[in-house]
Specification:
This protein has two domains: about 110 residues, Ubiquitin-like (UB roll), CATH 3.10.20; about 375 residues, Glutamine synthetase/guanido kinase, catalytic domain (Creatine Kinase, Chain A, domain 2), CATH 3.30.590. It is about 35% helix and about 20% strand. The chain has 17 helices and 16 strands. Helix 13 runs antiparallel to helix 15.
């Protein structure tokens, strides 16, 4: 893979307007955009402790004010955004725009928007904010390995809409890569992806997913009686910090597009019993000097790739604290649902925690085999070999999860025992025909309370070198403990069938918009 500058899509309105990549945006460039496009306000966006994107709108009165906003940022109350971590008496923080993140708001034509970073009164990056934790993890990874970790996310969600037509009925659990007219959400999905692609430049493809519900049954009025179609947006690999921002922004775009079209969206791990849940898989790629180093010259997984896998296996159970944060997460992580329950890795096995997917390593220019008239060479693969972590779901705290994954990768690349762990936790292809062999591998936590215990027992994996503040680890553990789900399955099993189903739906639907 060749190294590229941070560039949003080729058709990014700002990149086209300024005729330069986003990495080169300057304050004077952005002032020029404000004047040329008659921008009325600047909008700052930043990720709070709940993992959701927040915003501050700053009306523009004159050029000097706009320059000051872009140069100095603005202050806000950190104790409200990071409740329980920041003391209310020492709560002021600065939010400062990152120029390369600038975009024209697709939902507000008068706004120029930015992703911001948090700073303390001393002018240092605030140590407890989710984005800065990931920034420190990434800096440490680069310094200690000499490599770059790039990531792509698979963002799954349910689009929930009124039932307007019963023609071309889609059978339950038959939605994978289905097309119109069986899938009814294509036009709306196109709108979402157009905005995401223009702002992030990182969309690989999009498609319908397995899950579909003809008529949701729920105590929540906003979804009761509505149709749900499961969709996915898969991204191109980007440096880990950029991918976190792209994913949080994409959730914001997806929700706003749905809302403006009279629809709802949920990333919740599970929406209905017997219907596919919303996974949030991450593909990881190690790069050196802009080149993918996941395969050796012989075509085998390279030692760094195996070290990465070993690090993920080492951290896997505690990573659920950031990637599976609600009770319904553990209604998705059950056997025979293409979701992992044990810690092992395998080649292309979709029940494995870590999967090694196809990576265009042994075959090239396949199109020429069916298009023999083509005489030009292939331009090359956009992204090659990755390894896929399949445990996270839509409840993930994206920045914290990716920070944890980055620390797992660093541990795996710098620890002598990582290759032995990778060897120990490998499950060959015969596990598909002999699934009982999976019992040889350790279990992932089966509920939030157990996940919190594992996190606290292994907090040193994340607090080392001051990457995760202790208060953030305590917060994550308390968030999990508040789900109070350790005895959930036993309580559900003791209920009559109809009561059990109603209770399951309550648990699933209470976290519709958690993160």
């Amino acid at each position: 893979m060749t190294s590229v500058k941070h560039c949003y899509s080729l058709n990014s309105p700002l990149c086209e307007l300024l005729d330069k990549p986003a990495d080169e945006f300057s304050r004077s460039d952005l002032i020029g955009v404000i004047e040329k496009k008659d921008i009325e306000r600047i909008t700052f966006h930043y990720t709070a402790l709940d993992g959701r994107l927040k915003e501050l709108k700053l009306p523009i009165s004159n050029r000097h004010q706009a320059e000051s906003i872009l140069a100095e940022g603005e202050r806000l109350d950190g104790s409200s955004l990071f409740k329980g971590i920041v003391d209310a008496t020492l709560s002021d923080l600065y939010v400062v725009p990152e120029y390369r993140s600038a975009f024209l708001n697709p939902f507000d034509s008068g706004s120029l928007d930015f992703i911001c970073r948090y700073f303390t009164k001393e002018g240092d990056r605030a140590p407890f904010t989710l984005d800065n934790i990931l920034y420190r993890a990434d800096q440490s990874f680069r310094e200690k390995t000499g490599l770059r970790l790039s990531v792509l996310g698979e963002l799954e969600f349910f689009l929930i809409s009124p039932v307007e037509s019963d023609v071309f009925h889609l059978e339950r659990q038959k939605g994978y890569h289905e097309s119109a007219p069986f899938i009814k959400s294509g036009v709306l999905l196109n709108q979402m992806v157009r905005h995401i692609a223009q702002i992030t430049g990182a969309v690989k493809y999009t498609h319908s997913e397995v899950g579909s519900i003809d008529c949701i049954i729920s105590e929540r009025k906003e979804i009761d009686g509505r149709r749900a179609e499961q969709l996915e947006v898969e991204f191109l690999t980007k440096p880990v910090v950029d991918m976190a921002d792209a994913l949080v922004l994409s959730r914001w775009i997806i929700r706003n597009t749905a809302f403006l079209n009279g629809c709802d969206v949920t990333f919740t791990p599970k929406l209905e019993k017997g219907v596919a849940g919303n996974g949030f898989h991450f593909h990881l790629e190690l790069e050196k000097s802009g080149r993918n180093i996941m395969r050796s010259e012989e075509g085998e997984l390279s030692p760094p790739a195996l070290g990465l896998i070993g690090g993920l296996c080492k951290h896997a159970d505690s990573l659920t604290a950031f990637g599976n944060t609600v009770a319904s997460s553990y209604m998705r992580l059950v056997p025979d649902q293409e979701a992992p329950t044990r810690i092992f890795w395998s080649d292309m096995n979709r029940s494995a925690l870590i999967r090694v997917p196809l990576g265009w390593t042994d075959v090239h220019h396949l199109a020429k085999k069916i298009n023999p008239q083509e005489d030009s060479e292939s331009p090359g693969v956009l992204n090659g070999q990755t390894v896929e972590l399949r445990s996270p779901d839509g409840s993930a705290l994206i920045h914290l999860l990716l920070a944890g994954i980055t620390m797992a990768a660093e541990w795996g690349l710098n620890s002598s025992g990582a290759l032995d762990i990778a060897k120990k936790y490998y499950a060959g292809s015969d596990i598909l025909s002999h699934p009982e062999k999976a019992a040889d591998f350790p279990m992932l936590p089966s509920n939030c309370v157990k996940s919190s215990r594992v996190l606290l027992e292994n907090r040193d994996l994340y607090e080392r070198n001051g990457i995760f503040p202790s208060g953030v680890i305590d917060y994550a553990a308390k968030l999990l403990q508040a789900e109070n789900d350790e005895m959930m399955q036993q309580k559900l099993n003791d209920l009559p069938l109809n009561d059990r189903l109603n209770e399951i739906r309550k648990i699933m639907h209470r976290s519709l918009h958690r993160h």
